[in-house]
Amino acid sequence: MRPEIPDHPGPDTSSLLISDLEEALLAVDRVRAGRIIEATCAASSPVSCIETLIVPVLEVIGEKWEQGQVALSQVYMSGRISEEIVATMLPPGSPERITQPKIAIAVLEDHHTLGKRILLAVLRAGGYEVTDYGAGVTVDGLVERVIQDRIEILLISTLMLPAALRAKEAVTRIKEAMPEARVIVGGAPFRFDADLWRETGADAVGRSASDTLALVRGMAGAVVS
C-alpha cells in the first residue's frame, strides 16, 4: 500500500511521488494520477508543480519507451492524461494585454505537445498573445509561416535529437530573411546537451516554462522599446 502524500514533500518523497505518478499514468488511471498531482500541487504554484513533477515523469516514460520498456500507446495516453490535468491547473490568459511583438510557437517535426501547451498557458497567463503553429511542423512550413506573419519572437520546441538538429536549418533561413527575428529553442535534447542550442544559431534556450517566460519578457522589452 502506498504511503499518504505529505503536505510538504521533501527530496525523498519527491522521488516516491514521481514513481507513483509514473505508475498511475502507465496504468491509464486518470483518477489516481489526478489525486497525486492535486495533493502534491496544493502547497506550490501550478507551474512549479508541473516542472518538478509532471514533466520529469513524462521524461522518464519517454526514456523507457526508447529503451523498449513501455508501449507507445502508454506514452501517448500518459501525455493525454497529463495534458488534461494541466489544462485544469493553469490559469487562463490575463485579460490585460501588454504591448508586445508578434510571438509564435511550434513543435518542429515532433507531435509531442505537452511542453508546448504548458508554455502557451504560462505565456498567455503572463499577458502575451502567442500564435500556435501546432505540432509536426516541417522546416519549410515553419519558415514560410514565420516570414509571412512577420514573427518577431519564435519559440521552437523539439522532443527528439533529429528535430533539434533540423532546427538549425530553420533558424538559418529565418535569420537570413528576417535578421531582427529572435528565436528561442527548447525541449529534451537541449536539456541533455547544454551547448546544443548554440549550434542551431538560436538566440537563447528555454530550459523550463518559467525560464522561457523570463526570456520572452526580456526580448519583448528590447523589441518594443
Describe the structure.
Helix content is 59%, strand content 10%. The protein is built from ten helices and five strands; from the N terminus they run ααααβαβαβαβααβα. Helix 3 runs antiparallel to helix 4. The N and C termini lie far apart (58 Å). The N terminus is likely disordered.
Task: Walk me through the topology.
Elements: H1 11-26, H2 30-41, H3 46-66, H4 72-89, E1 103-107, H5 114-125, E2 131-132, H6 139-149, E3 153-158, H7 161-177, E4 182-187, H8 188-192, H9 196-200, E5 204-206, H10 209-224
Parallel strand pairs: 1-2, 1-3, 3-4, 4-5
Helix pairs in contact: 1-2, 1-3, 3-4, 4-5, 5-10, 6-7
Uncertain residue ranges: 1-8
Q: Roughly what percent helix?
A: 55-70%
Strand content: 5-15%
Instruction: Return the average pLDDT rounded to an integer.
Output: 85
Q: Give me the side-by-side strand order of the main sheet.
A: 2-1-3-4-5
Q: What is the subunit arrangement here?
A: single chain
Q: Would you list the SSEs in sequence order as H and E?
A: HHHHEHEHEHEHHEH
How would you classify the helix and strand content by structural class? Answer: alpha/beta
Q: Give the biggest sheet.
A: 5 strands, parallel
Number of strands: 5
The tally of helices reads 10
Distance between the termini: 58 Å
Question: Nearest-angstrom radius of gyration?
Answer: 18 Å
